[in-house]
Amino acid sequence: MAAVRRALCWALAAAAALAAALALDNGLARTPPMGWLHWERFLCGTDCATDPRRCVSERLFMEMADMMAAEGWRDAGYEFVCIDDCWMAPTRDEHGRLQADPKRFPSGIRKLADYVHSKGLKLGIYSDVGNKTCAGFPGSYNHYDLDAQTFASWGVDLLKFDGCNSGTLELLAEGYRRMSLALNKTGRSIVYSCEWPFYLRPMQQPNYTEIKQYCNHWRNFFDVYDSWSSIKSILDWTALHQDSIVKIAGPGGWNDPDMDKNFELWERPLSGQAYAVAVLNQQEIGGPQNFTFSLTFLGNGLACNPACSVRQVLPASRDWGVYSWVSSLSTEVNPTGIVLLKVVAL
User: Is the pTM of this model over 0.90?
Assistant: First the structure.
């Protein structure tokens, strides 16, 4: 009988440990996380030789950590210095692990995290649920546990997990769940920032109760741009959907209004299930900049549902091929320039 009791106690303890590992209740994000993210101003700048002051590199994040500590941002509650897309090398290392671009991050992410921590701040990093990031770098698909362990070993404090190139809604959801569990299993406190509901709409109403079980905050709507009309569109959307998004937000899980950018995205319906899409770079100086956007919401979700063909019309005509509705497009636009696309639903 004693042996049975011991076996039962062991089973109960194992079940409790498993439940603790599987739950998101990580004690993090008790208030909305605040900080700085590089994408709004620096996008996917990787040419440090030509434009070192606008390059995504360890120098940029060290300088930002210095500034946030010296100018009072840290003391006001802005504690995260966050790396967005384009920090990675084009391929994983010989052990299958993500690696930082060796030229732009010669000291590695571990040393960068140590520097940020020495300023009393926390480091955030970026990856993607799919096999490629939105900008085409290695994604975390089929590497969730390994990538979570890698981030933890580097001393990362926040993961922004994007939803590009996930293939299907089922794989999208599975990837967000699996990364959440993988982060918890590392034993390190890592805030988990998801874009899960953004990629679900409008094909499927997000289950915010489930999303909050896995994510510390989540993205709902389009990127915000440097214009009042963009800000107003987010306010209008939030007001329209407040019954579903406000009640779920609270300590440990928050709605994410996203960040600011220097691009505007316009769309107009054409005949034959086609849409004209214009991407405007509002910057007046500097070199060409990359802009990435989701096809999910174009034409109120109809422009690329379930798939679409994309052709660039200006500044040069070329065929971009066929995309699914959960895909993202990335285009390079000159300062004050426009790229015009024609999107046809299939």
Answer: no
